[in-house]
From TrEMBL:
<keyword id="KW-0496">Mitochondrion</keyword>
<keyword id="KW-0472">Membrane</keyword>
<keyword id="KW-0813">Transport</keyword>
<dbReference type="Pfam" id="PF02953">
    <property type="entry name" value="zf-Tim10_DDP"/>
</dbReference>
<keyword id="KW-0143">Chaperone</keyword>
<dbReference type="GO" id="GO:0045039">
    <property type="term" value="P:protein insertion into mitochondrial inner membrane"/>
</dbReference>
<keyword id="KW-0479">Metal-binding</keyword>
<dbReference type="GO" id="GO:0005743">
    <property type="term" value="C:mitochondrial inner membrane"/>
</dbReference>
<comment type="function">
    <text>Mitochondrial intermembrane chaperone that participates in the import and insertion of some multi-pass transmembrane proteins into the mitochondrial inner membrane. Also required for the transfer of beta-barrel precursors from the TOM complex to the sorting and assembly machinery (SAM complex) of the outer membrane. Acts as a chaperone-like protein that protects the hydrophobic precursors from aggregation and guide them through the mitochondrial intermembrane space.</text>
</comment>
<keyword id="KW-0862">Zinc</keyword>
<dbReference type="GO" id="GO:0015031">
    <property type="term" value="P:protein transport"/>
</dbReference>
<keyword id="KW-0653">Protein transport</keyword>
<protein>
    <recommendedName>
        <fullName>Mitochondrial import inner membrane translocase subunit</fullName>
    </recommendedName>
</protein>
<comment type="subunit">
    <text>Heterohexamer.</text>
</comment>
<comment type="similarity">
    <text>Belongs to the small Tim family.</text>
</comment>
<dbReference type="InterPro" id="IPR004217">
    <property type="entry name" value="Tim10-like"/>
</dbReference>
<keyword id="KW-0811">Translocation</keyword>
């Protein structure tokens, strides 16, 4: 007798695939927003070099770290609100 999933219906393969596809879309959107936001802030439009200089690299690292920190805080808040309303918050890679 297995105790895994006791009392809960298990998702079908199609539901699992849909959940993974949804997660991948969210991650792609997160990546695109981070890239756009941090590039606008840290990389000038007039390129003088083929590679990022040290200042641009440091700026991008800090920007990405702050972006993820804010994302995690917002995810935590939304998850707590969902749990307080009695819903179940699904797990994701970032919150």
């Amino acid at each position: 007798m297995s105790f895994l999933g006791l009392g809960r219906p298990q998702p079908s393969s199609a539901e699992k695939i849909a959940a993974v596809e949804s997660e991948m879309k969210l991650l792609a959107d997160l990546h695109n927003r981070l890239t756009k936001s941090c590039a606008l802030k840290c990389v000038p439009n007039d390129y003088h070099e083929g590679d990022l200089n040290k200042g641009e690299s440091v700026c991008l690292d800090r920007c990405a770290a702050k972006f993820f920190e804010v994302h995690m805080k917002v995810s935590d808040i939304l998850q707590k609100e969902t749990q307080q309303r009695g819903g179940s918050a699904g797990g994701s890679f970032f919150g």
